[in-house]
Amino acid sequence: MTTPIEWLLDLESLRRFPQRYARAVDQRDHDALASLFDPDGTVDGTFGLESVADYLEGMRTRLGTTGTSMHLLGDPLVDLEPGADRAHLDTYAVVHQFPDGGDPFTLGMRYLDDLVRLAGEWRIHHRKTERVWMR
Q: 40: closest CA among 111, 112, 118?
């Protein structure tokens, strides 16, 4: 049985989760980024549905993933039942991109994440990204 305090601790960990993702991406910290995902998970994003391994490799090597970025995040909407090992996050973001060798642009994004608890840590099992706008 989960206590209210344990539920609140999980909720706070999940609330902070998108910030951990944003910092890992913006700092190009690929090890930190990999630690946020379930290795058996999937990402449905700009390049279609990919395994986490393919997504992470693309984040290292794809044109447009180098350079500088800054994610500004809204407070995530967190769905978590007491005692659950699964959660859902819905997070809005404004992402400023400054790619090497390209023109800067800004995106309005929405991250829809299904997380699972693995070995006591929350991980993204499935992520769907939606571009709301681009400038």
A: 118
CA angle at 57 for the pair 89 and 13, rounded to the nearest 5°: 25
Residue labelled with tokens 């859902």: 88
Quick one: tokens of 128? 């769907």
pLDDT in tens, 26-83: 999 999 999 999 999 999 998 899 999 999 999 988 766 678 999 999 999 999 999 9
Contacts for 111 with CB less than 8 Å, ≥ 6 apart: 18, 21, 89, 90, 91, 93, 127, 128, 129
**76 φ, ψ to 5°?**
-70, 150
Closest CA to 38 of 123, 113, 127: 123
Q: Which two tokens stand for residue 113?
A: 């994440």
